Structure formats: C-alpha cells, structure tokens
Amino acid sequence: MTNFQQNNLDRSSSPYLQQHKDNPVHWQEWNEETLRYAKENGLLIFVSIGYATCHWCHVMANEAFSDHDTADYLNKNFVSIKVDREQRPDIDEYFMNFVNQATGQGGWPLNVVLSPDGNPFLAGTYFPHKPKHGLRPLKDVLSDAKKWYMENHGSVREHEIARKQELFTGAIEETTIAANIYRAFDNTFGGFGTQIKFPPHSTLLLLLNFFQETKSAAAQEMILQTLDAMATRGLHDHLQGGFYRYCVDREWTIPHFEKMLYDQAMHLWVYALSFQIFKRNEDKIVIEKITRCLQETFSDQSGLFYSAHDADTEHIEGATYIWSMDELKEAMNKNEFEVFSEAYDITDAGNFEGKNHLIKKNNGAGALNKIEEKLLAERKKRPQPFTDKKIVTSWNALTGIGLLLASRYAQQEKYKRMAFAIFEEIMQRHSLRGIIAHSSLGGILQDQEFLEDRASLLLLATYIYEDAQDDVEEKKYKRIIENLLNGLDKFKVKNDRGAKWFANTSGGDFKQIFAQTFDHPIPSAVSLAEMAIFRAHKILGKADADFGYGSLLENDFHNTAAFFTKGKFHEIRAPEKIAWAKIPINALLLKDAAYKDCTAFSCHEYNSQDELINSLPTIK
Fold first, then answer.
1. What is the pLDDT of residue 274?
2. Beta bridge partners of 283
3. 20 to 30 A Cα–Cα from 67, which one of 106, 131, 173, 299?
4. Are residues 370 and 464 in the same domain?
5. Quick one: 229 and 301 in the same domain?
6. Is the pLDDT of residue 170 over 70?
7. 47 and 116 share a domain?
C-alpha cells in the first residue's frame, strides 16, 4: 500500500518526475490508486504537468515546489500529482484543452486543480512562490481555489473536449493552396507570422508536394526562403547540427535552446524532400548535420534515440551554446578568427545575454569547416544540457521516416541502415502482446498505448516495405503492415460522436478522449493515421481512402493526405527497383510485372522503365 504522506516519485520511470523526487511536496504519480485515495478522503487534487526539458518547469521546481510553506499547504489540503506530458499525452491534451477554454492560453508547466472525483475547475501555467511579474503566489491561488470549491462544489462538472475533429469535409480550390497559405507568409524573414517563429514542418510538406505537382512559384518562394532562414540563422546549431525548438523573434535570431527528437525527425523529412526537388547542396549539408547530431547526442547506442536535450545548462538557458567575443578569440588563432568573423555575425555586445548565439552571414571560406570543428571541440568541454533518455515510439518512428527519405535522396546507405534499425528495435522492444508501448526508459516499458504510436509505426512500415530487399522481406513487412493496420480499430469511435478517432485505448486510469487534429509542432495522431492508412491500403490492395480538406496552416499534414487522395499521387509499379532520384516525392513504389503509373484516378502502362520515368513529373 502506498504511503501518501511522502513524495513517491523516486519509483517513477519518468526523467521529469525524477527531477521532482526531492521536492518537499508529497508528489504522487497519476494512477488508479492515487485517484481512489483522493476520492475516498474527499481531498482536492493538484495536478502539475510538464516535461524534463521544460525551462519554466525547472523554475517552478526550484521556486514554489521547493518552498516549504507552499509544500506544507499542498500536503495538508491536496493530493498532489506530477504528470510527464511526454509519457501521458492523453492527460496533457485533456487538461490543456481545459486551460485553453478557461483562460484562452496554455503552456507548461500546466497546473490544474480538480475536485476529489477528478473534474477540473481551475487551471494556469507558471505560478511563483512569491508575488512576481504581476502573478500571485501559488499558495494564494490554491487557498482561493479551496475556498471557492467549498462554496461552489455543486457547480463543478466533468470537462468535455469539443468534438470538432477529423470529420473534414472542406473543399479547397487546389490551384490556390499556395496563394492562400502565402497570406500568412513572412516574405521578409521566411516562415509564417510576424512574432515567435516555429518550424512549420507540416505546411512545408504540403507545399513541397504541391510544388511537385504544380511548379508553383509562390510555393517555391515560401519553401526556399523558410528553409534558408531556418538553416542559416538562430534555429540551427551550426557547430554540431540539429535544430532548436523555436525562435522567440520574427528574424529567427534567438532560439529556445531545447532540442527535441521530433524536430530533428521533421527537419530531416522536409530537407530531404527539398533536396530531391531542388538539388541544392545546402539542403544536403543540413541533412548530414542533423544525422550527425542524432548520432552524437541523441543515440542510445542500440538503434533508437532519446527524447530531448534541455534548453538550460546548470540553470542558465543556452549556456552551452553561446560565446563571448573573448571566448571566441581564445579558441581560434588570428587568421581563423578573421575567417570566422566573415562568415558569422558576432559582436562584442553579443545578441543574447551579452554573448553571441551564432548566426551565419554566409557559408564562409573553405577553412570554415575546420574552424567550426575546433569550436565544437571546445564547446564539448563545457557542461552539457540534461538529456531526457526516454525512448518515445512515435518520435522514433518519425525519425525513421526522415532517415529513410534522406537515404533515398541524398543516397546515403548508412541512413537507411539507421532507419531499419529503428523499426526493428521498436518492434522488438516496444511491441508486446498486441500493444505498441508509448515509451520506455532503461528497458522499463510504459504500458499505455496511444494512436500516435501505432499510426507513426504503421507509416514507417509502409516506407520500410518499399525498400525491402527481396520477396521474403516484402512478405514480412506486408504482414506487419496488416497487423498494425488492424490494430488501429481499437482507437476508432464506434458511434457517431462527432469524431472518428480516440487518442488512447479504453480502460486503465484515464477515460478515452478524442484525438487531436492540430498538425503542430508535429503531425497530429489523426493525420498520421490517415496518411498511414492511405499508404497501407495501396500496399495491401484495399480501397483508396478519401479525405476532405481541413484548415490551411492548422491541418496541413492532413491536407497533404487529402491532396494525395484527390489524385495528386503516383502509385508507381515496376518489375524491378527504380532509383529514388528518378521518382517524384509524392509517390509509392510497388512491385509489379508491368510498368505502370496510377495517378489522377487512372493507370497508364508503359513498355519500359525509361518510358515510365519520362512520363513522371520532372525532378529539377
């Protein structure tokens, strides 16, 4: 039996929860026993949701959750539960939906007060332990919440997520897709919007596939300007490769220094497709640097990849990555410094906290690579950010897709080996008794299963199938595809409730909730399922799916799948393998006795591989 009068996070498999095991707060994990204890004892529940590389989560851990007065109040009046949003996306999605409806904004840490039977009635994000930035202390907020509940408990109701979901029925004039997206495009600095800049992965994928079919000048402008801004400015780690989370300014100058696995996966995907279309060497260089970052800093050395690197080093954001002018001069000789200064925008005043976050002005002289390696070697001597070593199935599957596409178009066999290793390791380590486990840490499996994991793994399997070496492998991967596809049934909404998909399976310690459709920062679980089903059906010879369009910029991975189902896709069949460099990005390659291209709802047969290839949309 659990002792709820103490902090019990030392038993958790979550790196984030482990970070809070020494707080004076009597933290518990989210589980049926904890929830039952709160209900039976009539205690309010305080839920705090975050993740291991979250800057403001660290701040609260060091302030309010380390404050003994605040902890004492929580311990006497609440059951306090810590949740890792990366382990429990269902809980996070549900309460994030609540805080957005209640306050109009959300973020992490996400702090929610629940009634003893688990219904939320108050929520917010960061709270200090003393008045700060115009914010009230957490203890005062909790005291008011308790008083309000005692007077109004009868008015607390179960929160329902709005049923706006994936029943997309929208029609778009496809020739105007790029023009409509262009309205939000920042044609001065690249990207979309004029404030904080996130990498627009899903929108870029839609535009790349749209350009492949239409050669739209507007699509090309948005793609190339955004890719160049992300690669040359502050979002990119120019020394070791890989990308930070987002930039806090319109000009892509200063990032939030956190590095997420899913961002590396999606950047690989986007830059690989861009290289296939535009054949720009700078895209290939970015691909090489991302894979270097993955191998050097994310790899678990057995084929899979860790979740994230913290933005902070020793409680200072970006400390590992930024340089004073004196530090740069000490690391280089005079000639090297001159070459470096020509390529990078560096000043005595710096651009971040009095130091320089490296921004490229140009690609520099031939000696620049050696100078960058020298600086990286110096940087590696510094304290490094915390690494969340959790292995997340969906993020690894997306990484596998990115690597496989990079191997095809950059013609690097080692990337293909890495992608196949991801697939085989996930199937061996995270597939158990018909369940695809969401995550693991140190070999300990998380037993919850989510739509995003099965859908991502199915999608990766469809790409793996195309690169099978022989008939035996093809049959093996086809069986896996069929099993993964059938397993999606457990996530389907069985009656007309305004949605088609649940995010999680039934049973366990949390109710089923509808899966999200917002394709940001990565493709939503719904969109991944749709794309995976579309490709799996073609491989298995099942009826084609058909999707209506969603909102541009919000649902663009879904919109890419919808674009494909409207005939903007090539099902290419041939007796032998065809070099990927000769095939458009919006294609699936299958084995057949004849040469065929099935597109725009009709199939055309050809006499030879050359005749087939010459009929396809041109590769620049």
1. 99
2. none
3. 106
4. no
5. yes
6. no
7. yes
CA neighbor of 161 nearest in space, from 99, 117, 111, 115: 99
- The per-residue pLDDT for 362 is 84
Mean pLDDT to the nearest integer, 586-590: 97
The predicted-structure confidence for 477-526, as pLDDT tens digits, reads as follows: 999 999 999 999 999 988 766 678 999 998 789 999 999 899 999 999 99
Taken in order 104, 110, 114, 119, the sign of the CA dihedral is positive
- Are the beta carbons of 30 and 47 closer than 8 angstroms? yes
CATH number at residue 66: 3.40.30.10
In terms of Cβ atoms closer than 10 Å to its own Cβ (0-12, 13-18, 19+), residue 317 is buried
Q: Which of 331, 364, 382 finishes a domain?
A: 382
What global pTM score does this model have?
Answer: 0.95
> What mean pLDDT do residues 163-171 have?
57
Task: Determine the Cα–Cα distance for residues 251 and 456; give it in Å rounded to an integer.
Answer: 33
| HEC per residue, 306-326 | CCEECCEECCEECCCCCECHH
168 within some domain: no
What pLDDT is attached to residue 316? 93
- Residue 231 lies in domain: 195-312+388-564
Q: Of the given ranges (169-183, 184-198, 208-222, 334-348), which has the lowest mean pLDDT?
A: 169-183
CB neighbour class for 96 (10 Å; exposed up to 12, middle 13-18, buried from 19): buried
pLDDT value at 168 more than 70: no
Gap between the Cα atoms of 417 and 369, Å rounded = 27
Mean pLDDT (whole number) for 153-162: 80
- Domain of 262, CATH number, reads 1.50.10.10
Closest of 174, 161, 179 to residue 548, by C-alpha? 174
87, 29 Cβ separation under 8 angstroms:
no
> Given the DSSP bridges, would you call strands 439-441 and 391-392 parallel, antiparallel or unpaired?
antiparallel
Rounded alpha-carbon distances, angstroms, from residue 356 to 176, 331, 548: 42, 14, 47
Is residue 36 helix, strand or coil?
helix
In a domain, 557, yes or no: yes
- On whether residue 582 sits in a domain, the answer given is yes
- Which ranges of 280-392 would DSSP assign to H, the alpha helix? 281-293, 325-331, 334-343, 368-379
Fill in the amino acid letter for 587.
Answer: A
pLDDT at residue 253 above 80? yes
Q: 113 with 46, same domain?
A: yes
Instruction: List the structure tokens of 339.
Output: 């070459």
One domain for residues 17 and 100: yes
Asked whether residue 163 carries a pLDDT value surpassing 60, the answer given is no
Residue type (1 letter), 419: A
287-306 per-position pLDDT tens digit: 999 999 999 999 999 999 99
| Distance (Å, whole) CA 585 – CA 569 | 9
- At 429, list the tokens: 């380590």
Longest dimension (CA), the chain: 80
Percentage above 70 pLDDT, the chain: 97
What three-state secondary structure class fits 498? coil
Asked if 484 and 392 sit in the same domain, the reply is: yes
Tokens 């993740």 locate to 51
Q: What is the DSSP string of 243-257?
A: B-SEESSTTS-SEE-
Q: Quick one: pLDDT at residue 506?
A: 82
Residues in the chain: 620
How far apart are alpha carbons 374 and 330 in whole angstroms? 11
Name 432's bridge partners: 435
Count of domains forming the chain: 4
Q: Are residues 247 and 261 in the same domain?
A: yes
Last residue of a domain, one of 155, 184, 203: 155
Mean pLDDT of 396-419: 98
Are 109 and 39 in the same domain?
Answer: yes
Q: Is the pLDDT of residue 136 over 60?
A: yes
